[in-house]
Design brief:
Keywords: Hydrolase. By secondary structure, the protein is of the alpha/beta class. Helices cover 36% and strands 15% of the residues. The protein has an eleven-stranded mixed beta sheet, sandwiched between helices. Strands 1-2 form a two-stranded antiparallel sheet. A two-stranded antiparallel sheet has the order 6-7. Helix 4 links the parallel strand 4 and strand 5.
Length: 486
């Protein structure tokens, strides 16, 4: 891994009086304003980010690649642009992207071991972030091919939760979530194929947005993992998440999915009106044992009560999911098989990855085509809930974050059962391609383990979900609470 600047970490008292720690960067919108007003330079922010990354890498291990020299050069170019009076949405702000996203000059190993080639071009989403003025400080850790809700592996070690180092930040965008939750960067880009933005957002007390499929380009792939995976922002506030979403959104001519544009940030300041909200704790059928942890259920129900107090009509009601699980597995495992083919040495892949790839070979072809053909009927079936309600409120996960190592050394079958038990709620929306937003729900007990709730909507409903999330944020003030240690 490339190193940081070599300087020691700047220190300040941590929130809650837990001693010195790396200086936390301001949020995305605050950083943009401070840069435009000349209160700080892009180089200063980038140097602070690099010092924080270096100081926390032995403990949090959030980053796979750190672009110290390149990022400082990008920051200097941003400062020159700012001095000329240029104004772009993210000009001079340091951001991180996940290890599944192409950054020119860096390998895209997606959590795998092996000697991956350096990319000769940015992914379309990175191109758009650069066009908006962002400084890319590095690539964050992901489990191998993004398959699991924990961020651990022999390629990079264990990524840990800033709220409690004994526990995982989740996955697969666990490195991105850890970096944002610890204040190392103002925001980060993750990806979500079965909850991989929303799950780590829930487990690190962040806002995480899974946008409508196609909202953010997946190019150089026309689509990702047979359409179930999308890029999405992780941030501490709804406004920051919306700002990053707007900057990242847009399409390449080669994209298979091209939804009509929306204005995310503008929605944050709008009153959502009085909404009909379905509180749902039911999960889709998977034929595996699951149990909703009482701490999670209590936190989600408390949010439902606050929404009712804010004037919304909240009722208990569940979507009817039908056989949606039968359509997810072929798309996911065929996606693993395709991505595994990019690995320079298949022998270095996790045995569970090789097993998933074999399953993907068996379920490809006619089974995969049938799974994809079922999406339209499933949308109509599940979408009936939106005939009566505007938004579904559901747990993001069934449990608080598990301990580091709890799932890392299991067999493939055992891993599948355990991760479904922890995370049975997020993946159906990936099959449907619809938006979902995780919001912080609580930090549970003495263990300091965050949990979250999802706001789920039909196609192209990001503005409504973000407007509601912003109203809830103004009531809950979750962004004022920081991890006690990093």
């Amino acid at each position: 891994m490339a190193t940081g600047t070599g300087a020691g970490p700047a220190e300040q008292p941590r929130a809650g009086g837990h001693g010195p720690g790396p200086v936390r960067l301001p949020g995305l919108a605050a950083a943009v304003t401070a840069l435009a007003d000349g209160q700080v330079t892009a180089r200063e922010l980038t140097e602070r980010a690099l010092r924080g990354i270096e100081a926390t890498q032995p403990t949090l291990n959030a980053f796979r690649r750190v672009r110290a020299e390149a990022a400082l050069a990008e920051a200097d170019a941003a400062d020159a642009a700012l001095s000329r009076g240029e104004r772009r949405p993210l000009l001079g702000v340091p951001l991180a992207v996940k290890d599944d996203t192409d950054v020119c000059g860096e390998p895209t190993a997606f959590g795998c071991r092996g000697d991956f080639p350096r990319k000769s071009a940015d992914a379309e989403v990175v191109r758009r972030l650069r066009a908006a003025g962002a400084v890319v400080v590095g690539k964050t850790n992901s489990p191998e091919l993004g398959q699991w809700p924990f961020t651990e592996g022999p390629a990079f070690g264990d990524t840990r939760n800033p709220w409690n180092h004994d526990h995982t930040p989740g996955g697969s965008s666990g490195g991105a979530a850890a970096a944002v939750a610890a204040g190392l960067v103002p925001a980060a880009l993750g990806s979500d194929g079965a909850g991989s933005v929303r799950i780590p957002a829930a487990w690190t007390h962040l806002v995480g947005v899974k946008p409508q499929r196609g909202r953010i380009s997946t190019w150089p792939d026309p689509e990702s993992f047979n359409g179930i995976t999308v890029f999405g922002p992780l941030a501490r506030t709804v406004e920051d998440a919306a700002l990053l979403l707007d900057a990242a959104s847009g399409n390449h001519p080669g994209d298979l999915h091209r939804p009509p544009p929306v204005e995310a940030r503008a929605a944050v300041t709008r009153d959502p009106g009085r909404l009909r909200i379905a509180l749902s704790t039911r999960w889709a059928f998977t034929a595996t044992p699951k149990r909703l942890d009482p701490r999670v259920e209590a936190a989600v129900r408390a949010l439902a009560e606050r929404l009712a107090a804010l004037g919304h009509q909240v009722e208990e009601a569940d979507p009817t999911y039908g056989p949606i699980g039968l359509t997810f597995v072929p798309r996911a495992t065929a996606g693993v098989r395709a991505w595994a083919g990019r690995a320079p040495d298949a022998a270095l892949l996790d045995p569970r990855t090789r097993g998933a790839a074999r399953t993907g070979r068996l379920l490809g072809g006619p089974v995969l085509r049938a799974a994809r053909a079922a999406e339209g009927p499933l949308r109509r079936h599940v979408g009936r809930v939106f005939h009566r309600y505007d938004v579904v409120l559901a747990p993001t996960t069934a449990t608080p974050p598990p301990r580091v190592g709890d799932l890392a050394r299991l067999s493939g079958w055992q891993t599948d059962r355990r991760m479904i038990a922890h995370c049975p709620y997020a993946w159906p929306w990936n099959v449907l391609g619809w938006p979902g937003v995780n919001v912080p729900a609580a930090v549970t007990g003495d263990m300091r383990l965050p949990v979250g709730a999802q706001l789920l909507g039909p196609a192209d409903s990001e503005p409504l979900l973000l407007s509601l999330a912003a109203q809830l944020e103004a009531d809950q003030r979750w962004h004022e609470r920081w991890p006690p240690t990093v």
